[in-house]
Amino acid sequence: MKLIIAMIQPHKLPDVKQALFDADVHKMTVSNALGCGQQRGYTETYRGAITEVNLLKKIRLEIAVNDNFVQPTIKAIIKGARSDKIGDGKIFILDLPQCIRIRTGEEGTAAIG
Ligand SMILES: Nc1ncnc2c1ncn2[C@@H]1O[C@H](COP(=O)(O)OP(=O)(O)OP(=O)(O)O)[C@@H](O)[C@H]1O
Ligand SMILES: [Mg+2]
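# magnesium ion complex -> structure
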C-alpha cells in the first residue's frame, strides 16, 4: 500500500478529480495548503528581489491506494494537473504500512479498496 500526496494548483482540482474518477479512484482527502517550490513562491506572481519565501495557495491531495493503483493514480494526477508551467505541482509517494476501516475493523488492502 502507498500513500500518494500531491500538491497541485487549486484551479486544476476539477480536472484532477475528473481524471481520478476516470481511473476508478474515488477515495481522497483534499485540503487547502500553502506552499512554495524552487521559485520560493515568487516568479509565479512577482518579479522583485527575493528576500524570503512567499507562500502560495495550493491544494493538497492525499490518496491511499493498493499497489496496483499507484501508477494509474499518478498518471491521472499528472493528466489533470499538468500545464507545463512552473508551479504545476509535485507528487510524493510514501509506503503505507497499515490502514484500518473503523466501522468494520477491516485492515490492509481490504480496508483501502
Ligand atoms: N521539496 C518539497 N517539499 C515539500 N513541499 C514541496 C516540495 N517541493 C514542492 N512542494 C510543494 O509543492 C508545491 C508545488 O511545487 P512546484 O510545482 O512549484 O515545485 P517546483 O519544484 O518549484 O517545480 P516547478 O519548477 O515546476 O515549479 C509547492 O508550493 C509546495 O507546496
Ligand atoms: Mg515551483
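# post-check
The CA atoms of residues 20 and 26 lie 7 Å apart.
The longest strand covers residues 56-65.
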